[in-house]
Design a protein that fits this description.
InterPro entries: DUF2316. It holds the Pfam family DUF2316. This is DUF2316 domain-containing protein. The structure is a single chain. The protein is built from five helices and no strands. By secondary structure, it is mostly helical. It has one domain (5-94).
Length: 103
């Protein structure tokens, strides 16, 4: 599944807003997810090759925002139960296991 330009723009904005709500640094997020800062930047700009990795970031950010007693910004494209999307690696998403490498 690919996102159209409007969905891409909205999703980048929603990821950024939830990142800001989390109060975390990029270094903390990258460390927690065991990825490089370069890969994290690819995720925030949606230039990451894996379709599952942005869902992992989404779920991680939602969890961190909720831990602070805040409500995450809703997503317009990354929504619903990822287990229902045949093209996603649901096991990897559940385990927060990013794909290897920076792309």
């Amino acid at each position: 599944m690919s996102l159209n330009p409007t969905q891409m723009k909205n999703t980048r904005k929603e990821l950024k807003e939830n990142f800001e709500l989390s109060g975390l640094t990029k270094e903390q997020v990258a460390s927690d997810l065991n990825i490089s800062l370069e890969k994290l930047d690819h995720l925030f700009t949606l230039t990451q090759q894996s379709l599952s990795d942005p869902w992992i970031l989404r779920n991680y950010l939602n969890e961190k925002v909720e831990e602070q007693g805040k409500t995450p910004v809703s997503y317009t494209a990354l929504l619903g139960d990822w287990h229902q999307y045949w093209f996603l690696d649901t096991r990897a998403i559940d385990a927060q296991q990013m794909t290897p490498g920076d792309n």
